[in-house]
Amino acid sequence: METLERLLSQHPFFKELGGEYMQLVTGCASNVRFEPDQFIFREGTEANQFYLIREGRVALQLFSPERGHITIETLGEGDILGWSWLIPPYSWHFDAKALDLTRAIALDGKCLRRKCEDDHNLGYELLKRFSHIMGQRLESTRLQLLDLYGVRS
Amino acid sequence: MVPRPYVVKRMRKDTVDTFTLELGPKDGRSRFSFAPGQFNMIYIYGVGEVPISICGDPSSSTLVHTTRAVGAVTKAMSKLRRGDIVGIRGPFGTSWPVEQARTRDVVVVAGGIGLPPLRPALYHLLAHRDAYGKVVLLYGTSTPDDILFKEELENWRARFDLEVFVTVDRGTPGWRGNVGVVTTLITKAGFDPTNTIAMIVGPEVMMRFTALELMKRGVKAETIYVSMERNMKCGIGLCGHCQFGPLFTCKDGPVFRYDQIKDLLVKWEI
Ligand SMILES: Cc1cc2nc3c(=O)[nH]c(=O)nc-3n(C[C@H](O)[C@H](O)[C@H](O)COP(=O)(O)OP(=O)(O)OC[C@H]3O[C@@H](n4cnc5c(N)ncnc54)[C@H](O)[C@@H]3O)c2cc1C
Ligand code: FES
Fold first, then answer.
1. Statement to judge: residues B150 and B179 lie in one domain
2. CA-based nearest residue in chain A for residue B172
3. Which residues neighbour B227 within 8 Å (Cβ) at sequence distance 6 or greater?
4. Is it true that the peptide bond before B117 is cis, omega within 30 degrees of 0?
5. Per-residue pLDDT reduced to its tens digit, B226-264
6. Mutual orientation of helices A19-26 and A120-145 as an angle, nearest 10°?
7. How far is CA A142 from the centre of its chain?
């Protein structure tokens, strides 16, 4: 537990969260490991976790019958994976597949949601942090959509 | 300045629209020396002249240019074959701050056809590897099929003294590499932002967002360099074709310090 708390508190996502909240968060955390090509979650299933990737790479994918598994984005060391646990209907919108051997800290979303309902300050802190990540991902997606490297017409 | 005739010694197709020409002076004399980041005006006889960065090793005897066929001149260039003659004027313009970067970490960020103009700088850094701290190459392009210099990237990736990250905007089936814009690689690379020189080439939007992301990590605008593209005619500061605000891209650039041009980059009128 102590190492988990140390690992979590060193991550920029939890920076300055405060000791008391860190303990609450750590209470919902566990170490997990995924083999290459193992699915971490599948589209449409219940979203009850998020992950802090410590090592390895994860592909966020969508399946299309015409084009197969399409990778939308890859995430790696230090990245946060998943926010569907935070927003109803709490179900995954993508598949997540480990590309390499991946170690992560899983945070139990159900446990955190309960704690956030009990203590709105904690809820606000987590929402602020997730909004920041969502903003970054949205910006990256917009740049991806621009097809910047295409020939100007 | 009259173009000097050069012979095509080798023509290689890199991707569906990009090719590399190796050129040597027709008169057999040695070629001029150049600094990483400089460009030549390449004249395709009867078609026209275009500015293209020099992309080969500054210490090799041939002149190398990697070009994407986008319009009249570059498409005519893509049809050149061994033995054909082109006219060369150059080298022109400012260069990458490879001397100033000594003892520091160097982060090289390339987007799409932005990799060729940075390649001579990478050759220089690797040839004088002990003079620099960490050296990182971050390269983003559209799809796996558009990745340039694949073999060389593999060799560079295998080195222990160079970190190479490649990403594509759109993966293809079977691609196991990174997917996402090049800016997402900045947090992955290990370098000391307070002691780093960054060199960026790519589309302007990509360069702006890359510079912003580097600055978020703590790199100062004064230590970020970008290479700008503008239409050119004379290449030597006479005609005004390449004007960029108060600056001439051919003479004051193409390599600019980011803090000196960042306000111009967001002015639509320029
Ligand atoms: C200093 C400098 C260095 C350069 N280095 C390189 C290099 O190393 N390799 C390289 O391939 N190009 C490089 N360029 C860009 C190159 O000069 C242009 O692509 C070329 O001038 C286009 O001429 P064209 O007659 O073939 O096309 P044009 O007929 O002038 O243009 C045809 C179409 O292509 C579009 N287009 C023009 N340039 C580009 C571009 N760069 N990217 C996407 N679309 C474009 C135009 O908007 C137009 O729609 C450099 C430019 C500068 C200023
Ligand atoms: S191209 Fe003529 S002034 Fe720059």
1. yes
2. A70
3. B37, B53, B114, B117, B118, B199, B200, B201, B253, B254, B255, B256
4. no
5. 999 888 999 999 999 999 989 999 999 999 999 999 888
6. 70
7. 19
Do B241 and B122 lie in one domain? The reply is: yes
Chain A contact for B180 (CB, 8 A cutoff): yes
Please tell me the number of the ligand nearest to residue B229's CA.
1
CB atoms within 10 A of CB A83: 18
Distance from the Cα of A1 to chain B's closest Cα (Å) equals 27
Q: Is the CB of B228 under 6 A from ligand 2?
A: no
Class of domain A4-146: mainly beta
Domain range spanning residue B29?
4-92
- What distance in Å separates residue B33's CA from the closest CA in chain A? 30
ipTM (interface predicted TM): 0.88
Instruction: Give the start-to-end residue ranges of the domains of chain A.
Output: 4-146
Which structure tokens are listed for A28?
Answer: 């919902």
For the stretch A62-97, pLDDT in tens is 988 888 889 999 999 999 999 999 999 999 999 999
Residue B52 Cβ contacting ligand 1 at under 6 Å: yes
Cβ of B170 within 8 Å of Cβ of A144? The answer is yes
